């Protein structure tokens, strides 16, 4: 369907979903798992950004921090406090993983906001890997830490006995839907925001409403900056919540 | 002809799926509004509850995202 909009030439000049097409960076052969695509490029740039911020920024370890160092310290302290608040003291062992997730998603989201950039987190393939890693990791961790007691997560002991089997069914469904909602929330938000900006950009070709649409793009862009951060935050805090469920499965 | 009707159905379905997003909007607004009314009654307790606020918003939003996904699937995948 995306191609039809192109060939007719009556609608938008460009399709709002075109920006999410995965293209090989060199040449245009078929895409294999080892092909270097624009997703690879922007994920690598995100990693470079993380290294620049966290490794280079904290290299000098000044008592009076430079700007980069204070940002790195702020991010570290923010996530550390979040893990501690949500999972408790014994969850701090898993802080590095949560921090990795957060900082990578933040960088991928923000780099995707640059004009002509590509947002890796707008693809379900990327976020699903992260969400499945969290889901599998948390499930295995729950069984390793609590043994069969982890199944107590599905057996709501505080509910009346007659209701418990029904609640158990609902809990099981909601448990297995977690990786789906976890990944789609991030990908959907990033994709929707960028597509809306592109739709407004398409209206800018009409002279009469061009100023209006540019104002709308500016407003949406501001919202997107907020959304980029909040979705990274939400992804991380839900990881913490799932981690807490694995460590303390009792309701 | 037959393909046209199928495609029309897909487009109508995609439009109908967007109504689910309205429900998510109501839900998110409900969470945030109730948080605000609670926070104005007891501002000192509000700061500690922002994490809960975002978790609540995320769960309410997830269902809207599901309907958005259904709309996208109908538009581009089916």
From TrEMBL, chain B:
<dbReference type="GO" id="GO:0046933">
    <property type="term" value="F:proton-transporting ATP synthase activity, rotational mechanism"/>
</dbReference>
<keyword id="KW-0406">Ion transport</keyword>
<comment type="function">
    <text>Key component of the F(0) channel; it plays a direct role in translocation across the membrane. A homomeric c-ring of between 10-14 subunits forms the central stalk rotor element with the F(1) delta and epsilon subunits.</text>
</comment>
<feature type="site" description="Reversibly protonated during proton transport">
    <location>
        <position position="61"/>
    </location>
</feature>
<feature type="transmembrane region" description="Helical">
    <location>
        <begin position="12"/>
        <end position="33"/>
    </location>
</feature>
<keyword id="KW-0446">Lipid-binding</keyword>
<feature type="transmembrane region" description="Helical">
    <location>
        <begin position="53"/>
        <end position="77"/>
    </location>
</feature>
<dbReference type="InterPro" id="IPR000454">
    <property type="entry name" value="ATP_synth_F0_csu"/>
</dbReference>
<keyword id="KW-0813">Transport</keyword>
<keyword id="KW-0472">Membrane</keyword>
<dbReference type="GO" id="GO:0005886">
    <property type="term" value="C:plasma membrane"/>
</dbReference>
<dbReference type="Pfam" id="PF00137">
    <property type="entry name" value="ATP-synt_C"/>
</dbReference>
<keyword id="KW-0066">ATP synthesis</keyword>
<feature type="domain" description="V-ATPase proteolipid subunit C-like">
    <location>
        <begin position="12"/>
        <end position="74"/>
    </location>
</feature>
<keyword id="KW-0375">Hydrogen ion transport</keyword>
<dbReference type="InterPro" id="IPR038662">
    <property type="entry name" value="ATP_synth_F0_csu_sf"/>
</dbReference>
<comment type="similarity">
    <text>Belongs to the ATPase C chain family.</text>
</comment>
<keyword id="KW-1003">Cell membrane</keyword>
<dbReference type="GO" id="GO:0008289">
    <property type="term" value="F:lipid binding"/>
</dbReference>
<keyword id="KW-0812">Transmembrane</keyword>
<dbReference type="GO" id="GO:0033177">
    <property type="term" value="C:proton-transporting two-sector ATPase complex, proton-transporting domain"/>
</dbReference>
<dbReference type="InterPro" id="IPR002379">
    <property type="entry name" value="ATPase_proteolipid_c-like_dom"/>
</dbReference>
<protein>
    <recommendedName>
        <fullName>ATP synthase subunit c</fullName>
    </recommendedName>
</protein>
<keyword id="KW-1133">Transmembrane helix</keyword>
<comment type="function">
    <text>F(1)F(0) ATP synthase produces ATP from ADP in the presence of a proton or sodium gradient. F-type ATPases consist of two structural domains, F(1) containing the extramembraneous catalytic core and F(0) containing the membrane proton channel, linked together by a central stalk and a peripheral stalk. During catalysis, ATP synthesis in the catalytic domain of F(1) is coupled via a rotary mechanism of the central stalk subunits to proton translocation.</text>
</comment>
<keyword id="KW-0138">CF(0)</keyword>
<dbReference type="InterPro" id="IPR035921">
    <property type="entry name" value="F/V-ATP_Csub_sf"/>
</dbReference>
<dbReference type="GO" id="GO:0045259">
    <property type="term" value="C:proton-transporting ATP synthase complex"/>
</dbReference>
């Amino acid at each position: 369907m995306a191609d039809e909009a192109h060939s007719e030439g009556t609608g938008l000049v460009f399709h709002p979903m075109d920006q999410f097409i995965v293209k090989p960076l060199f040449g245009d052969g078929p895409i294999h798992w080892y092909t270097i695509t624009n997703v690879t490029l922007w994920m690598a740039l995100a990693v470079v950004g993380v290294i620049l911020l966290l490794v280079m920024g904290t290299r000098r370890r000044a008592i009076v921090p430079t700007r980069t160092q204070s940002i790195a310290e702020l991010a570290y302290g923010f996530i550390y406090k979040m893990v501690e608040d949500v999972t408790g003291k014994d969850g701090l062992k898993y802080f590095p993983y949560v921090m990795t997730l957060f900082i990578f998603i933040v960088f991928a989201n923000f780099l995707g906001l640059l004009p002509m950039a590509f947002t890796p987190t707008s693809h379900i393939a990327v976020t699903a890997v992260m969400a499945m890693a969290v889901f599998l990791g948390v499930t295995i961790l729950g069984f390793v830490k609590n043994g069969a007691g982890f199944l107590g997560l599905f057996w709501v002991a505080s509910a009346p006995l007659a209701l418990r089997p029904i609640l158990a069914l609902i809990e099981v469904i909601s448990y297995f839907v977690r990786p789906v909602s976890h990944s789609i929330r991030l990908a959907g938000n990033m994709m929707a925001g960028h597509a809306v900006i592109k739709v407004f950009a398409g209206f800018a070709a009409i002279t009469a409403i061009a100023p209006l649409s540019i104002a709308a793009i500016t407003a949406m862009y501001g919202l997107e900056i907020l959304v980029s951060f909040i979705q990274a935050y939400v992804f991380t805090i839900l990881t913490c919540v799932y981690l807490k469920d694995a460590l303390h499965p009792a309701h | 002809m037959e393909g046209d009707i199928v495609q029309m159905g897909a487009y109508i379905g995609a439009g109908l799926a967007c109504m689910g997003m309205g429900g998510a909007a109501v839900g998110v607004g409900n969470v945030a509004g109730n948080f605000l009314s609670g926070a104005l009654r007891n501002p000192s307790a509000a700061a500690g509850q922002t994490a809960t606020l975002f978790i609540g918003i995320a769960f309410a939003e997830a269902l809207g995202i599901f309907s958005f996904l259904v709309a996208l699937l109908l538009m581009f995948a089916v």
